[in-house]
Design goal:
This protein is 9% helix and 63% strand. It is mainly beta. Strand 8 and strand 9 form a beta hairpin.
């Protein structure tokens, strides 16, 4: 009896197995699914680029009143306008910029707000040489002017919009700080008792402002690359000195002279960040 029951069951088992449902393929674990990038968090990076510096209106002011302790003024009052005109005019130059940046972002849906500070080299220098004729003295005179900076610090806010999770466009603006160095000189070819010469300079840490925009692309969860433009502008620095002739008479003839110079720059740079 057992044999007669077991035999039909064994014969039917292949057919029953064929009727079983096919098992579904395993679902990929969550780690295998591409993660959506989130911009929130602290980051640290480096940048490099170029700066086009510009001084819009260096202004020179000379006096036709002699200085105490001298025999009188070197400049004739009728030549003051010509001297001041030689020392007034725009100048420009280009240089390298690069350094490090650090900041923090907070993302709210597609909006990103953040703060960033950066510090680095800022080799911005502008210079000019102007030559003309002094009507009263009848001599050729030249004024050379330059202003430069060697480092730049900015502290800025950022406001951005995220596209497709890993592309961020943003605007930025805030404080800029640098150390400006202004240098000026005068020389003429006055005959008889020798030329008038003089030099004057100043150096000061100056505050200004910056504004710009950029785009940043996150190519992994931690690494991103960016391209950025900034405009920076600094307050005027004033250098004062003396133009004199002492070749004939001890004490000679001398005038006070000064030049006020500002500095602005357009900065284009690229960078890379690591988000912690």
């Amino acid at each position: 009896m057992l044999g007669s029951v077991a035999l039909p069951a064994l014969l039917a088992s292949p057919a029953m197995a064929a009727d079983l449902a096919v098992k579904a393929p395993p679902v990929a674990p969550p780690s295998a699914v591409a993660a959506i990038h989130n911009w929130s968090g602290f980051y640290l990076g480096v940048n490099a680029g170029g700066a086009s510096a510009y001084s819009g209106d260096p202004t020179t002011s000379a006096s036709c009143t002699g200085l105490p302790g001298t025999f009188g003024a070197y400049f004739a009052c009728g030549d003051i306008a010509a001297v001041n005109a030689l020392g007034t005019g725009s100048m420009s130059g280009v240089g390298f910029t690069g350094g490090t940046q650090a900041g923090y972002n907070a993302q709210f849906n597609s909006i990103v707000v953040g703060i960033e500070a950066d510090f680095g080299a800022f080799n911005a220098k502008t210079s000019r040489v102007a030559t003309g004729t002094l009507a009263v003295a009848g001599s050729q005179a030249s004024i050379t002017e330059s202003i430069d900076a060697h480092w730049l610090f900015t502290a800025r806010g950022r406001l951005g919009w995220v596209f497709n999770d890993n592309l961020l466009t943003y605007v930025t603006g805030g404080l800029a700080v640098t150390r400006l160095n202004s240098s000026d000189s005068y020389v003429d070819n006055a005959g008889g008792f020798g030329p008038g010469i003089g030099s004057w300079s100043a150096s000061a840490t100056k505050e200004g402002w910056t504004a710009g925009a950029g785009v940043e692309w996150a190519f992994t969860q931690h690494w991103s690359a960016r391209a950025e433009y900034l405009y920076v502008r600094f307050n005027t620095i004033t250098a004062s000195g003396v133009v004199a002739n002492t070749s004939l008479i001890p004490g000679g003839y001398a005038n006070a002279i000064s030049t006020a110079t500002d500095l602005s720059a357009h900065i284009a740079r690229a960078g890379i960040n690591y988000k912690f």
